[in-house]
Amino acid sequence: MQGMTFGAMDAIINVLGIVVGLGVMGNKVAVVVGLVVAGLANSMGNAAGFHVSEETEGVHTRREVWFSTILSFCSTFFVTIILLLPLLLLSLANAIVASVSMGITIMIFLALFVGRRLGHGRKDGVKLVLEYVAMGVIVVIAAFYLGQVASSMLGGLAA
Questions:
Q1: In the structure, what pLDDT confidence band is assigned to residue 158 with cuts at 50, 70 and 90?
Q2: What is each CA distance from 15 to 3, 42, 123, in whole angstroms?
Q3: Nearest Cα residue to 159 out of 16, 28, 6
Q4: Tell me: the pLDDT tens digits for 13-50?
Q5: Residue 22 · residue 92 · CB < 8 Å
Q6: What is the pTM of this model?
Q7: b/e per residue, 94-115, with b = 16+ CB within 10 A?
C-alpha cells in the first residue's frame, strides 16, 4: 500500500504543479507535452526511489520490494494519466480547473483511505483530509505564481 499511496499523492502534487505552472503561459501543447514527459520521468523516478528505499530498510523480501516498485510506478503513472485527460478534452482554462478539482478530489479519497487504514476516527479523518488538501492548495498557489514569473521573464516566447 505504501508504494500505491506514495505514487498517487506524488502524481497529484506533480500534475497540479505542472498544469497550473505551465498553464499560466496559455500554451496547451506545452502543458500536455510537459505533463507527459514529466509524468513518465516522475513515475520512473518514484519507482526507482521507492525500490531503493524499500531495499534499504532490509526488512522486505525481493518480491515485496519489486511489488512495491511496480505499484509505485503504476499508481504515479495512472493518476498522471487521469489528471491529463481534461487537457485532451477541454479548453486549457477549463482543463486546469477540472484537473485541479479532480486532483483535490483524489486527495480527499486518499486521505479517507489512509485514515481508515490507520483506524482514525471521524475527527482525525477530517484533519487528514484538510492536511492533504492543504498540500495541494499550496502547490497550486506556488505553481501559479512561479508560472507567472516564468511567463513574464520569457515574454513572447511563452505563447
A1: very low
A2: 18, 10, 29
A3: 28
A4: 999 999 999 999 888 999 999 999 999 999 999 899 98
A5: no
A6: 0.84
A7: ebbebbbebbbebbbebbbebb
Question: Where exactly are the structural domains of the chain?
Answer: 2-157
Mean pLDDT over 107-124 rounds to 84
Residue 147 CA neighbour count, 13 Å, CB half: 21
For 27, phi and psi rounded to 5 degrees? -110, 100
pLDDT of 1:
73
Task: Give CA–CA dist 37/66, Å, rounded.
Answer: 24
> Residue for cell digits 477540472?
98
- Rounded to whole angstroms, the Cα distance separating 149 from 137 reads 19
d(CA 46, CA 129): 23
Give the helix ranges, DSSP H, for the chain: 2-23, 28-57, 62-89, 92-117, 122-154
In this structure, the chain runs to a length of 159
Tell me the pLDDT of the chain averaged across its residues: 90
How far, in Å, CA of 140 to CA of 130, rounded?
15
Question: Do 136 and 103 meet the contact criterion of CB atoms below 8 Å apart?
Answer: yes
pLDDT at 156: 55
